[in-house]
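Hey,

The postdoc asked me to send both predictions to you directly instead of through the lab channel. I've kept everything plain text so nothing gets mangled by the mail client. Protein one:
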Amino acid sequence: MNKIKCLDHGFVKLIDHMGDDQAVVQAARVSYGDGTKTATKDRGLIRYLMRHRHTSPFEMVSFKFHCKMPIFIARQWVRHRTASINEISGRYSILPEEQYVPEKNHLAYQSTDNKQGRSDENIPQDVLNKTIDSINDGFKAANRAYHSMLDDNIAREIARISLPLSQYTEWYWKMDLHNLLHFLQLRLHAHAQYEIRVFAEAIMELIKPIVPISYEAFDDYILNSHTFSGAEMSILRGFLKERLHELPTEHPSISKRELQSFKRILEDG
């Protein structure tokens, strides 16, 4: 599987990639002049790199995707400036009548405590129907204006300005693994807009089989981890001070060295 459908007309397709977990290991070991080690040691090295934010070896792997998404999502996506992008141009191409229509269960009121988010409050059915009708009516009017200008031989670069942000665009998008994981960290987050999370989830599924160890480390140390402030660490240390001796000396998910490091972090302060 190298293509995943997203939303109503969108998709993410993996076109090509350079490198895998072994490329990360080779880049990390070049300073020491060593060849590859055992699979167990390779996994340990990758996890060490991820845990301690030694990021440059992950830049040795890159992925190239063909993506199709609504323009309003593309404008969020392009904020990740470390990518190479080549996008379809409405100056040269006649754009298809493809605009994003959200499903009713993804419509929501504006959140009262999050200026850029949706609330969890239920919307009455008549308001849902009215909203979808308004979106579709806007599409029809925009497309009529667009094609009317094209029929009158108005330049495509002018005619396209009548199209809405929900118009689909597409691009080739290439990024190294380190920056791609940062993209996923932000765009898989529960506070990210639903529509871009759909694309981030598709990218995640496409890269995991290629860099399984790197992704596992990312999942453990970045995606499902939390950073505490100095004040928060002080509270934790005070709370756990009398119970540090209860920490296990072995755990199936992490190495003894990691457990020892974890204990030292809790003891310091």
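Protein two:
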Amino acid sequence: MDDIRLKQDDILELTIADDGMAGEGVSRVGTYTVFVPFCLKGEKVRAKVTHVRKDGVVFTELKEVLSPSPLRVKPPCNRFTRCGGCDLMHVEYARQTEIKRENVERLFQKNTRLDVEVQPTVPCTSPYAYRNKIQLPFGTVEGRTVLGFYRENSHRVVSITKCFLHGDWVEKLISIFLDYADTFRLSAYNETTGKGDLKHLVARYIDGNLAVVLVTAGRRLPGLDYVPERLKKDFGSFSFYLSDKPEKNNVVMGKSIRPVVETPFVVDILGIKAGINPYSFLQLNAEIRDKIYTAVLEDVFARSDAPIVVDAYAGVGILGAVAAKRGAKVYNIEIVKEAVEDGKALAAKNGVKDRVHFVCGDAAEELPKLISELSDSENFDFGSLNIILDPPRKGCDERVLAALNGLSVPHKLYYISCNPATLTRDLNRLIGYDVLSVTPYDMFCQTRHVETLVRLSRRDINY
């Protein structure tokens, strides 16, 4: 068996031995490890080899499921397996959440020295139509301008007319902008030739309010009155912006936007009113966001009625404002000056400006200075200090972790992560902390991705 030599285009009949990290099945052929997309453990399948790596890892294309798992379900979307958006739509939902827990646990075992039990994944009550934001590239299919998603590992657009991860609002939105493009003969931007008019459509829809940005190649567009008329008819309350982006890079929106129709709207996040603009960062799954924030704050307030909260990646400081509304004293560290100004306005509008303090700067530099200043205070209660990390997908700056390692005061640490690989890497770099709990949350239903909340404390510190 070990002398088998696999090559591209070989057809294999396999039994799937395990569920992989990206919604794929894993099998063995001799010394090869074979990955088959859209499969489940225990299934017998037929697959075609697409690539054989020198290290014995083999990638394939699923051709047929010969013996399906009882956990396999029929996906509602006819673009599934093609559009690159979903990975787990073929899997019964309870099993999806268990796969994510197993994947987080596997990464902890592989990447850290920590002996931890990963809690069950907190599910989403609505595993479809949960996303409040969509970002669609324009493309060309059979000579027509389309909207869709990039096929995985490519810039080839797979056209869609609806998306099951969003509500019906997306279907109406796509129809409006494709009708606009068709009526005024507008073409999708071509990255190779540099020709074309339309690049992306970016939209957010919350509580009946729509904000949509049309990203263009920087060319003047005809017939723009058509769009607001249709949006008003189909949505009522909306804002419509244009963003010119002549630059050739992978950034979606341009450096500036200009309103065509602007109707400011406000969202309520656990009692905090926050205005939304096209550049606002807001988690795309409101239910899971609120569950994570609630879990953090319940733990914070369980130890003190007046805790101190330091958010090292604060953004505009929504979580800090929620904490302040409940009685915490909050210090938000944020490097983006505009976000700091927006955060101050947010705190003022919600009546918590006296309990929320913003530090504009790099967390690696500002965090140790802030903790030093706090610890010098005569009234500082060490047992009430809580530090929150909610970094971008790339994880924490090494200097932030070094700053945490250098802190001598007792505190609780909460790490919220959308990438378990960088999460486990960062936790492995922390020194002097005990992991109290690891809980995955299904922020991104039907996909391989998972949000994780880790609670930690300084070693030998009892609360």
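Summary for protein two, as requested: The chain has a mean pLDDT of 93.

Thanks,
C.
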